[in-house]
Amino acid sequence: MGGCEFKFRGSSDDSQMTLNNFELISVVGQGGFGKVYKARLIKTRNLVVALKVMSKVRVIQKKSVSSVMNELQILSTLRHEFIINIISAFQDRCSLYLAMDFLAGGDLRFHLCKFRKFSEAITKHIAICIIIGLDYIHSNGIIHRDIKPENLVFDSQGYLRITDFGIARIWKPQNSHETSGTPGYMAPEVMCRQNHGVAVDYFALGIIIHECILGKRPYTGKSRQEIRDQIIAKQAAITEVPQGWSVEAISFANALMQRKPQSRLGCNGPEEVKNHPWFKNIKWTDYEKKHIGSPFIPDEKLENYLKSNQLESLEDQSILHSEQVQQQFFGYEHLHQLNGIPLYVPPIVSPRTPNLRMQLKKEQ
């Protein structure tokens, strides 16, 4: 995997984090840049983490250097019980490593594929977890922009957390050029290259609820253009209340899926989302403290793992010999530490910054 290791600047001693600090247990996911491993941090209370290993060659080939650097920068500023939290980040000459909370319950996509639909009680629980996570993210001036089932992962108690901040951005009024996202969950204003704000994340939430209710997304197609044409052609809506569902649930989903952001529930902030009649009996503070039992507990024997636990690196890595190329990853490091020893710090809710909320009504 390469022999060039990079020391953490600012450490109180000469210690450094490397792959040797971890015992790889199994592969729990695979993405465009590499694999995610369940791993054990050997010298720190045997802490089990999710270790994301990214090939620098693949990152460069996909022109995603800014994305992986951006994800680290954002995650380094956030800590909360309803998002994935970073434990450490480091690199060697060939790879980037990001150690995060290990969540044992599998992602929402895995469970949607297994069950296809969910009950109203489970769907409401899913929505509440996402809303709490989005409230925290937005309150810190950040738009996630890629809320989808693959980026929502259950912990062992059945609570969802938001993951993957690769295309998240600090909100700014002029951002029409930032059109990244996943077709099918991407808000119309992003798809059509318009300025956008926190309402894009609530649109994605609406699509997810539609999927939980009916077992499918409202906008589908083989290409980004096909999905864009559908969004332009019709307003998504659930027109009938399925058996076992309330009118309030359908009303909530439809309010989130409004194509015009200024008409969309959530455009004016999280309180109007939380105050929707569907949540009239919800004690949000208790939910934030996870005092409410989840109606959905992932199977303890869940084995959503790939078979191999070996690190693989098959690309031509000759470009990585250039120090100019390596400089693109300068600063890819992060470490919670105490006296120079890596130490996991439990999630702490950071103080909220009011600047984004003040702009919510002005963003469109």
TrEMBL record:
What PROSITE patterns does the annotation carry? AGC_KINASE_CTER, PROTEIN_KINASE_ATP, PROTEIN_KINASE_DOM, PROTEIN_KINASE_ST
Q: Name one Pfam family in it.
A: Pkinase
Q: Which family does it belong to?
A: Belongs to the protein kinase superfamily.
Listed GO biological process terms: intracellular signal transduction
Record's protein name: non-specific serine/threonine protein kinase
The molecular function GO annotations come to: ATP binding; protein serine/threonine kinase activity
As recorded in UniProt, its EC number(s) are 2.7.11.1
Q: What class of enzyme is it?
A: transferase
Provide the AGC-kinase C-terminal domain boundaries: 280-344
Q: Which residues form the Protein kinase domain?
A: 22-279
Instruction: Supply the source organism for this entry.
Output: Paramecium octaurelia
PANTHER family the record matches: PROTEIN KINASE DOMAIN-CONTAINING PROTEIN, SERINE/THREONINE-PROTEIN KINASE
Sorted alphabetically, which keywords does the UniProt record give? ATP-binding, Kinase, Nucleotide-binding, Serine/threonine-protein kinase, Transferase
Q: Does the keyword ATP-binding apply?
A: yes
- The residues that the entry says bind ATP are K52
Q: Which InterPro entries match?
A: AGC-kinase_C, Prot_kinase_dom, Protein_kinase_ATP_BS, Ser/Thr_kinase_AS, Ser_Thr_kinase_AGC
